[in-house]
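Incident review: delayed structure delivery

Summary: a single-chain prediction request sat in the queue longer than the usual turnaround. Root cause was a stuck worker, restarted by the on-call engineer. No data loss occurred. The affected request and its eventual output are reproduced below so the record is complete for anyone auditing the incident later.

Affected input:
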Amino acid sequence: MKKILVIFLILFLSIVGHCYVMYELYLPEVSGTGNPAGTDKVFTAVNCSGLTKANGYLKIDLKCDTPANMSTIGALELTSSGIPDVNEWTMVDLTGLGITTDYQTFYIPLADWGTTSGELNVAAINFIRWYNFSTDGNITIYWRNAYIIIGWLHEWNTQTISKLNMKEFTKWNGLR
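Output delivered after worker restart:
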């Protein structure tokens, strides 16, 4: 009986593919205005042991008051140093995400993120920064509801996942 249950569980999980662990990083809204517009937040360190670039995603809500003015010069950063540019994983050029004036939830794969000034300590993530230059005047950028997701949908095309909004995600995965 135990063998049948184990086989069933393995088969079920391989078909469903929704095995994941999610860690809350920081939920309240953070915003910044300027050229560049900058947002950053230090928070209590979160232990995301087991996280790698290959198996992880940043789930985050993003918006911009004038997305048409977002320059390709910008970055989204995760650190374990409490400051930017040290022990950091970085995604540059967020214009390809399709950020709008309304909040959208993005599931951004960490697989293509770069590393700056030492490797991120995944057992002590404590800082998020998003900055973006504008092509015309000031912009205001906003983020909220930041989570790390480990081991979920890692077999999907990363370009598709990075552009998922919450409505599509919940429809495809039967959530809500």
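Verification: The first strand starts at residue 21 and ends at 26.
Action items: add queue-age alerting; document worker restart procedure.
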